[in-house]
Amino acid sequence: MTDVIEVRGLVKRFGSVVAVGDLSFAIQSGTVTGFLGPNGAGKTTTLRALLGLVNPTSGTATVFGQPYRKLQDPSRRIGAALEASGFHPGRRAIDHLRIAALAAGIATARARGALAEVGMEPAAERRVGGFSLGMRQRLALAGALLGQPEVLVLDEPANGLDPEGIHWMRGFLRSYADQGGTVLISSHVLSEVAQTVDHVVIVAGGRLVASATLAELTDRTSGGTVRLRSEQAETLRDALVARGATAALADADAVVVTGSDARDVGRMVADTGVPVFEMTTDGSNLEDVFLQLTSSDVGQP
Q: Do the beta carbons of residue 19 and residue 42 sit within 8 Å?
């Protein structure tokens, strides 16, 4: 996979306030990345710099190796929904998208297809003023999809969605990435992010705190606890200890390994030749990790 989004040494100051300070990370193609941080951590400012809406004080934020402003036909390369607002309340949903398509040089016929993709085609003739927040979120996503872009940048897309809508959004983003698209999603709904993302970028105080896969992050911060079940638990424990693992019996058929991640334990188990019928990780969840990594940050104004 190649890096589609690159943020390198990004700094953005607003007067005396440092909104983003020397931030660097990269997003690979075909992945869903959660962009997380406390309020005031610099997430929205970073996304706006990526989309050419604010000028960095220093550093770069690029898409496909270029600043957004230099992209040819940008609506077909990257689609964005930073907030579910800016809709004329008296305008029909289909007309809102037709106007957006015209502004982007996209055929207006694409508007109805974008509505269908987000499950909003039945509401095409309805006026936006009567939409719930969840419906406006879907309409904003439809706008981001007009150019059938390779990359989606979404700020809090699950805000206002009901459980069915959140489930739909999760499946949509996962399918989008599985088909080769790339998603960068800023969110405070950590439980949903944990069920959707491949990679997590956490910022606090405008600086990078962590960038890793979800599994790597939870293993690293929890210290790595893996529970194994086997009909030969004692034999398994002894074999793992002989290979340098910290392993102990937890039950007649259970062994707990601490200080190693699931990948390393799996390799050791395969090497022992002892049959295992269950293997689980007792690691931190994303919320635990997030709070642990950002607890010392008080945010920025």
A: yes
